[in-house]
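Take a record.
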Amino acid sequence: MLAAAPVLAQSAAAPAAQPMADINQAQAAGLAARRDFAQFVQHNLRTRQAGLPDGFPLDINDIQDLQDASVGYGFQVYTLDPQDIVAGRAALHSMVKPTGVWRFIIRLHDRPIGLATVEQSAGAWTTVAYGGAVLSKDVDALMAFHGNAQRSNLRFVRVFQAQSDFLEVQSGADAKVRFAPLHSARESLLLQQRAQKTNGAGADGLLDAADILEPLRAAVKTNMDAFR
């Protein structure tokens, strides 16, 4: 019922090759994502004959579309410590840390329709959420545009305290690290105009760390102060 899809999850550890521990994580998380999605599909096909409920987490038009959906490639979620952002004493890319959470693109034919979020608990990997249809399309397009064949030059970075997502992109030519702001970052950090300025003919739309550090720092400080 479900199309088979290889797990091409990458940790995007740069510039060294992907660590074996991350490869093992990717494989285990991918197996869990496919197993759980098969169960999710069967449950919904069995219990939702009347149609799609409001707020269904995947971007489909009919519940029967799930029969043709599949789990695609995955990527680990990285983050930045808010204290590191505020202090700003090191290069931004050197402060990025893995969270241990993996996300997998869910496709209907060739179209991204959402994400499966997979976490490890008590030694077992399991899918904890489905959703993120807008994010899945944004990530898939930018990874295709900026990534190498293995996507090993990319890292997905979520700054929770700033409600912002980025792709960290390492150049294959000179190993320079730059950032592609995703929809959440463009909106919450008001990076839309900066991204547009670099997105003209022949431009890659990437921003230097200096372009995003101050907006990040301001957003993180504001949110941290709000919870004190």
